[in-house]
Write a structure and sequence with these properties.
By secondary structure, this protein is α/β, with parallel strands linked by helices. Helices cover 44% and strands 17% of the residues. Helix 6 crosses helix 8, helix 6 packs parallel to helix 10 and helix 7 runs antiparallel to helix 8. The longest helix has 21 residues. It is globular and about 60 Å long. 48% of the residues are buried. It binds nicotinamide-adenine-dinucleotide. The site of nicotinamide-adenine-dinucleotide has 32 residues, from helix 2, helix 4, helix 5, helix 6 and helix 10.
């Protein structure tokens, strides 16, 4: 584990404007947590309710409480892990919030990784039909990916099947948190950066190829830069389509299989690890359908392998179980399961059905077998 660096931003905080009509600034940089009291001063709320998993609360709860000194607040804790993205945890948190006196003037703060952010986001988006939300993401994944999205979701029968769109009034992404992030979580988070490179190509892809190894070696500066570039690459996609219902559906590259694998193996693999395997599968499927150029399939797999993530399906998960779980994918429009496919690394394929391509079960089954 690395040591925490002093909270003095080296180059000053950067502020990105998130996309969409609502104002939703992202304060990014080392030590930006210290900006929190000042930002909160400008918001008129009665109580701040932070929602954190028990792992993050144990390591960083005190730092948050110290920063919130003088601000009326409560910290609500739930058990860490994907299983908590459930209706049961949601209901327990709603009960606790009501007991504590939450009102329409309250502010919900997601503190932690993508699970805390999604739970806080769904709570804020649905409680009293919507109250204000803010994020303090503490994982690479949450800083560079999930908190940029307005999509908030819970797992119910399948992955992310219940959800809403809700925009945070601000996000405070302090890269110093990454110093304590477990390595497995950190590397898993980078899979979404690889995804952005695979679907967008261009400068971001070249940057990633050049700098990935140093970030994997946990060079703090390189990690900070990779997070910065990853945020910009995702915002560029969201800018055209903030609700991810049109062109930004390419962000789902690799996620059809990833979500099925994540649900079946329930906690054995991280979200990022499942996305890694899902991206390799999509490249293989694209090649099998004659869409992806030869040479680009191994290139896609090599990028996932470079961050040390698994690229093959576990032997004990059957293709039938994966097919069944993929039938519950929330992108599906008709009879067939649908995927984002690539023509080249950096170029998604647009076919007669748009960017999502229905694929027969037989072809999916065969490709799954080739991913073992
Ligand atoms: N559009 C979206 O909303 C979107 C996009 C991508 C992913 N997601 C969701 O995000 C979730 C995955 O998020 P995640 O990868 O951040 O996992 P996570 O929230 O489960 O966090 C991973 C683990 O790291 C610990 N942790 C977090 N920050 C830490 C820190 N700074 N130091 C030490 N430990 C720390 C947590 O306690 C947890 O055990 C999935 O549910 C996924 O579906 C949502």
């Amino acid at each position: 584990m690395k040591t925490l660096t002093p909270p003095a931003p080296k180059t000053g905080p950067e502020i990105f404007q998130n996309v969409g009509k609502e104002k939703s600034p992202i304060y990014f940089g080392r030590g930006v947590l210290s900006l929190l009291p000042g930002i909160l001063q400008d918001l008129d709320f009665d109580t701040l309710y932070a929602v954190a998993d028990d792992g993050v609360e144990r390591i960083h709860g005190e730092a948050l409480r110290r920063t919130l000194h003088g601000v009326r607040h409560q910290v609500l804790v739930f058990p860490a892990g994907e299983r908590s993205k459930s209706l049961q945890t949601f209901e327990a948190l709603v009960g606790r919030l009501l007991e504590l006196g939450v009102t329409r003037r309250s502010l919900i703060l997601g503190f932690g990784g993508g699970v805390s952010g999604n739970l806080a986001g769904f709570l804020a988006g649905t409680l009293f039909r919507g109250i204000r939300l803010a994020h303090v993401p503490t994982t690479f994944q949450a800083q560079t990916d999930s908190t940029l999205s307005r999509k908030q979701a819970l797992n119910c029968h399948g992955k992310n099947l219940i959800g809403c769109f809700h925009t945070p009034c601000f996000t405070l992404s302090d890269t110093d948190w990454m110093a304590t992030e477990p390595r497995r979580s950190l590397l898993g988070g980078m899979s979404e950066s690889i995804k952005n490179a695979l679907i967008r190509g261009g400068d971001f892809h070249d940057y990633l190829v050049e700098h990935l190894d140093a970030a994997v070696a946990e060079d703090a500066e390189q990690l900070h830069d990779l997070a910065h570039q990853s945020i910009l690459s995702k915002l560029a996609i969201l800018r055209e389509d903030p609700t991810e219902k049109g062109e930004a559906v390419i962000l789902e590259y690799g996620h059809t299989l990833a979500h099925a694998l994540e649900m079946i193996t329930s906690g054995r693999f991280t979200h990022g690890e499942c996305v890694g395997i899902g991206m390799v599968f999509n490249a293989r499927l694209s090649r099998r359908l004659g869409i992806l150029q030869a040479g680009d399939e191994p290139a896609a797999e090599a990028l996932v392998a470079r961050i040390g993530l698994p690229t093959r399906l576990p032997a004990d998960v059957s293709s039938e179980a994966l097919l069944e779980a993929m039938r519950l994918d929330n992108k599906r429009r008709g009879r067939h399961i649908e995927f984002i496919l690539l023509e080249r690394v950096g170029r998604p394929h647009r076919g007669p059905h748009g960017l999502l391509h229905p694929v027969t079960d037989e072809c999916i089954r065969e490709t799954l077998e080739h991913c073992r």
